[in-house]
Amino acid sequence: MQLGLKRDEIRLVGYNPEWTKEFSRVRDHLLQNIQLNENWIQHIGSTAIKGMPAKPILDILVGVNDLNNADSSLFTGLKNCGFLRLKVERPGEIVLAKFTDQTYEVKTHYIHLTEYRSELWNNLIFFRDYLNSNETARQRYLEIKKEYLEKSSTGINEYTDYKEEFIKYIYSKRTSQN
């Protein structure tokens, strides 16, 4: 299994069941080094959707009680596990990444640090679970990803924006179920 993308590179690879094993390995490493609840570490993103081609980067959701008061020991533990905080600004989320080496050119894993059971947490989990249980939605999501890649193999922000309408549509299904 080969993980990693260069800065701003967009590339899909075929689904790999090893992604789940890699998530378990990273989760166990986090739990050994940081005081976290096991259920507050979740595999998300396309690598968590069975059969879905994905960018070869593992997305991990980590929940905390209060994002604004996350203590320095948490970030020290994450750094000891190889995760460095990125300068990405997103509401309700801190993003960290793991790289292949000290050049910091190729990212292999992301941690999305957010408040446990927040709106963002719930949406990310719902999206993963919905696509895992709905073949039609899974196929449409793959089509959207491929449509973007027909035009470009760079532009992570543009790629994310291109998928946003579909993602928000799936999120709306969660709120309509409540």
UniProtKB/TrEMBL annotation:
Gene3D superfamilies: Beta Polymerase, domain 2. Signal peptide: none annotated. It comes from the Bacteria. This is GrpB family protein. It comes from Cytobacillus gottheilii.
